[in-house]
Structures are given as structure tokens and as C-alpha cells.
Description:
Pathway: Lipid metabolism. Pfam families: PLAT. GO terms for molecular function: iron ion binding; isomerase activity; oxidoreductase activity, acting on single donors with incorporation of molecular oxygen, incorporation of two atoms of oxygen. By secondary structure, this protein is of the alpha+beta class. It folds into three domains: 2-113, PLAT/LH2 domain (Lipoxygenase-1), CATH 2.60.60; 114-165, no CATH class; 172-210, no CATH class. It contains three helices and twelve strands; from the N terminus they run ββββββββαββααββ. The protein has helices at residues 122-138, 168-187, 200-204, and strands spanning 2-10, 21-28, 36-39, 47-54, 61-69, 77-85, 91-100, 104-109, 141-143, 150-152, 214-215, 218-219. The radius of gyration is 25 Å and the shape is elongated.
Amino acid sequence: MAIYKVTVATGDMAEAGTNNFISITLVGSYGESRQTTVSFLFQPGKEKSLSVHCGQDLGPIVLIRLHKWRLFLEDAWFCKDVRVTAPNGTLYRFPCYQWLEGVTTVEVREGSGKKLVDDKLQILKEHRHRELAARQEAYRWKNFAQGWPRCLSVDSILELDSNIQFSSIRATNFTGFLIFQGASHFLSGFLLRRTSWSSLDEMRTIFSRTQGRDIGGCLVL
């Protein structure tokens, strides 16, 4: 009997937790574990620990499968990472940092950087192939108009997977930055000016109050 200690961490952003059921499967070089339930209640910023019992040693853990399903209402879950400690004390880390929505299974590789030539196991080669196919499907391109740069083949950002959409935190930062800039231009007379500027130096005075400051993550020159 081999016992693996598993810790599953939920992201700390708003609504990252879930009331849906989450289970996990460990995949090693010598085999894989049975699907083991982690919990049905996850809170933002919290961790869940459990033991996964296997009939034999799985060898080095190369990836994990996170399974999400629901009984009634859908409740998306943001998984931060998963840590697995083998019976011999070896710690494996699986960075996830993505939303799981609906009834789904997500495969996460062990968090050591590897190239295609490093994938000796067939299961890792197949995982890389599926991941590439999913990326190609998610990032399909189209021509917006003749002579314009190509863009994503969607009509709205809402059609994109939630893990691709622009984060609400970054959107809030940009919105705050635009409000600040608008107020600054208004106070400096830019928005209400009815006559032309006499020189470039006069125009530069509009931005003198914010020159060189780091506002909302953007450097204003």
C-alpha cells in the first residue's frame, strides 16, 4: 500500500471557491490512482488536504487530473495549485491557476520546465498534443478588414473561455487610470479649450502634472 499526501489550494480572489464536487487522480510513471474525492466545499484562499491510497507505488508523479461535477447548480472554481508528497518524501508541485467550469476534467503537468524532447512517456506526449489542439481551437484568427492586423475569431469577449478573458482586476485598474487622466485633462484646461495652441511647449504643460509617474501599472511619460 502506497499513501500519497495531497494538498489542493484555491485562489484567493472573489468567488474562487465552489460548492461543486472536486476529485483528483494521480498519474505516475508506473500507473495511476483511482479517482479520489477531495471535497464539495472550497473557500477562497483556503487549502484542502487528503490522502490518496494506492495498491502500489506509482513512480514519479508526472501529472494530475482534476475532476469537477455538480448535482444541481453550476459554481465555477479557481484552482491555484496542487502539491503531492510521495511515500518516499518527494514533493511534486502542479501549478494550475485556472478556472474549472461545468462538468469537466483538467490535466495539469508537474511544474518542472520540460521541452518536447523530454517527454519520454506516451501519456505526456498525448497530453502535449491535446493541449496544443485546445490552444489552436481557442486562438483561431480572422481578418477584421483588408489591411488591418488579424484578430481573434469571436464577435464578443464573452465567447472566450474565462481563462482567456481579460481579468476584472486589470480592467478595474485601467478604468481608474482613464478616470484619473480625464480629470487631469479637465483640470488643466484640455477638454474645455476653444482655441489652438501656439506651440508644442504649451501643449506639453497639459501633461506636466503626471509626467514620469507610475499610474495604475502604466508609466506616463
